[in-house]
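Supplementary Note 2. Why include the ligand at all?

Several targets in our set were suspected to adopt different conformations when bound, so apo predictions alone were not considered sufficient. For every target with a known small-molecule partner we therefore ran a joint prediction. The input for magnesium ion is given below.
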Amino acid sequence: MTTLLRVEGATRRFGGVHALRDVGLDVREGETHAVIGPNGAGKSTLFKLIGGQLAATSGTITYAGRRIDRLPPHRRARQGIAIAFQDAPVFRGMTVAENAMVGAHAVTSAGPLSAILRLPRHVKDEAFIRTTAAAALRRVALDDWADRPAEDLPLGLQRALQIARALCGRPRLLLLDEPASGLRGPERSALAELIEDLRGEGMSILLVEHDVAFVARLADRVTVLDLGRVIATGSYQSVRTDPAVITAYLGGHG
Ligand SMILES: Nc1ncnc2c1ncn2[C@@H]1O[C@H](COP(=O)(O)OP(=O)(O)O)[C@@H](O)[C@H]1O
Ligand SMILES: [Mg+2]
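The joint prediction is reproduced in token form.
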């Protein structure tokens, strides 16, 4: 299996806090890879380093064979990296369709001036945005909700909408930061099914999740972070019996 994403020696400090220390991780083409670890372990920081929302203090990130760690987020997005952030829920006061259109907007090339002047490029982009957003909503079975305010959606469907927004960029690599948190059983299974379907279509997925059953069901491999370091990588079965992992989860560092 070829490697799609490789993070090497990634370190990120916030003042005196080492959010990540010398982290290495790779995502293979087509795999679902889970990142787990206690709160504050550095999972969201790692995602933002990959997406470009945060710069690493040191380290390299290679995607599809090329260094991407100096590229701004929108260039990484156009190369097929999409993130559903933990701290970016749906936009309230906008419809479901408008929320999806924000995702499509992010991958078009025309700037705001083009929109104001209604240049031909903008008109073309507008059509692209509508069709892309509509296709993404169909993909996650939200088309019936298109004209409803996004905040009317139950939480499980709000997570699906976040994924639809990410899908507008036709990602090869989809990063999902705690997509199942706060969801009830049936919502959780519906989400797991959607992620399985995306994997079945060949998408590579990097997933942060706390729920053990969810990880066991979806992940081909698991990387465990604790206090900013990778303490284990491997199959779910191998990491769950790893002594360092057991210690981290039982609060071995007080
Ligand atoms: N923007 C920031 N400024 C300062 N400290 C931060 C910032 N983001 C994260 N941290 C710190 O980095 C560590 C890792 O955070 P985070 O990546 O959010 O962990 P996780 O997602 O695993 O819960 C924590 O100690 C957190 O307080
Ligand atoms: Mg987090």
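The pocket of adenosine-5'-diphosphate (ligand 1) is lined by residues 14, 17, 19, 37, 39-45 (CB under 6 Å). Strands lie at 3-14, 17-28, 32-36, 58-63, 66-67, 81-84, 173-177, 204-208, 221-226, 229-234. Comparable summaries for the other entries are listed in the accompanying table.
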